[in-house]
Amino acid sequence: MLKKMGEAVARVARKVNETVENDLDTLDLAECKLVSFPVGIYKVLRNVAGRIHLIILANNELQALSSKFMTTFSQLRELRLEGNALHHLPDEVSTLTHLKAIDLSRNQFQDFPEKLTALQALETINLEENAIVDVPVEKLAAMKSLKSVNLRRNPLNAEVRVIAKPLIKFDLLMSPEDGQSN
User: What are the two backbone dihedrals, phi and then psi, of residue 181, each rounded to the nearest 5 degrees?
Assistant: First the structure.
């Protein structure tokens, strides 16, 4: 167990160093067995955080992201958090004013993260395979840049299914009512 933990830490360090040394705009920490975003990374990335436009934290074990994460990486264009154990986003997600795409699929959201509706640059929201019942359709409809919202494999209530279609101008992907996927 200790050896595996050491390998995971070494992998994170290697990927962070690669981002810094190569002046990359991407930080890929997918499948690193992270339970939280390592605090030490903020210090290592402090001089390049503003240039990072894509962070991939897919397929970890994250249960939450801190407000510091959101404010440190405020220049993000894309955030990939699929396959974690997230159930909410911090209020500071609203500081990601350049964010165009967020992938929150295969997490544990029971409520639609409404703070996302304040992000006017957002084009794509993926919330497939969560436990979301209700969706702020009117707020989503008011988002001018929004092109796609994936809500497949969520137990959406019937009201969302009825009112969504006439109000929205973007692609709203939902599973059929009988539970089969599209």
Answer: -85, 155
